[in-house]
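Is this the right way to post structure tokens for a design question? Let me know if I should format differently. Anyway, here goes:
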């Protein structure tokens, strides 16, 4: 067999022998087993969750309730900060988890091995984010349980509010994960950019108003305008209106947040998938799936 025939043999795409959902479940299960292997780490993460909620409880004692009320968010700073703190971990998981996992796979030399198996690489990449989502779920539930039932934060957990919260929450995940796909595709090719991704996540969290009302940005119109360019801003606004103010899905502001998040998702998801595919195809052509 001559060299061109060998090259053609390696370029043939084999039909996948398993369903994409089954492959996705396998990757998620592997990530879950690795996470549960570090039991002490999980315990420490739960303790840090408790400590962070208690910290914001005491910070709330220093916040003027009237000033918070004038911003339209009631008088409980604990309730206001809980929604931001509980969901911000998912923001980090969406934006940074995939790029970090891919870098880890490349450094360990396992991405090249996985690439020659009959797995759908899109399912593999999506499954890599599972650990970040699972850890963030523990953090989210821990923050709400400690804050609401331990410290008495007044959040409205009704069937209606939870349904609208889940809708906005899922749109938040989709839109921000799309940004994570874009960054992962770029990092695969250029092997750099992790600091930039972390800066993007930090700026996103700051401009969305995780710990302060966005009304405080009015004296700074340029910064306020910049905050409107991130999907997390609208997600956080909608979730707070639902859980703190009891707004329904038909509330104008909530409906606006849902529409804007949907637009972000429709635009960013195809772009994110294209960038991820571009990055993976390029490192395959260049033979750099195991070099970092």
């Amino acid at each position: 067999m001559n060299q061109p025939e060998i090259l053609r043999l390696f370029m043939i795409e084999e039909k996948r022998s398993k369903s994409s959902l089954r492959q996705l479940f396998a990757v998620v299960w592997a990530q879950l087993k690795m996470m549960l292997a570090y039991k002490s780490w999980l315990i420490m993460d739960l303790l840090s969750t408790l400590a962070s909620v208690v910290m914001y409880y005491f910070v709330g004692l220093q916040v003027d309730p009237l000033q918070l009320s004038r911003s339209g968010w009631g008088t409980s700073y604990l309730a206001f900060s809980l929604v931001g703190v509980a969901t911000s971990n998912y923001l980090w998981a969406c934006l940074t988890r995939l790029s970090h996992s891919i870098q880890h796979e490349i450094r360990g030399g396992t991405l090249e091995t996985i690439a020659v198996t009959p797995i759908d690489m899109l399912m593999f990449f999506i499954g890599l984010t599972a650990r970040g989502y699972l850890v963030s779920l523990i953090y989210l539930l821990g923050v709400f349980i400690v804050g609401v039932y331990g410290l008495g934060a007044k959040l409205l957990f009704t069937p209606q509010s939870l349904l609208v919260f889940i809708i906005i929450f899922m749109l938040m995940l989709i839109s921000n994960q799309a940004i994570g796909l874009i960054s992962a595709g770029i990092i695969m090719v250029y092997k750099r950019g992790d600091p930039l991704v972390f800066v993007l996540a930090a700026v996103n969290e700051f401009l969305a108003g995780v710990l302060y009302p966005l009304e405080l940005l009015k004296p700074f119109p340029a910064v306020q305008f910049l905050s409107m360019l991130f999907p997390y801003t609208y997600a956080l606004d909608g979730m707070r209106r639902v859980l703190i103010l009891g707004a329904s899905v038909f509330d104008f502001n909530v409906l606006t947040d849902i529409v804007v998040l949907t637009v972000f998702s429709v635009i960013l998801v195809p772009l994110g998938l294209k960038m991820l595919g571009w990055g993976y195809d390029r490192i395959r052509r260049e033979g750099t799936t195991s070099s970092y």
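Format looks fine. Someone answered above. Worth noting: The mean pLDDT is 82. Residues 189 and 281 are 9 Å apart (CA to CA).
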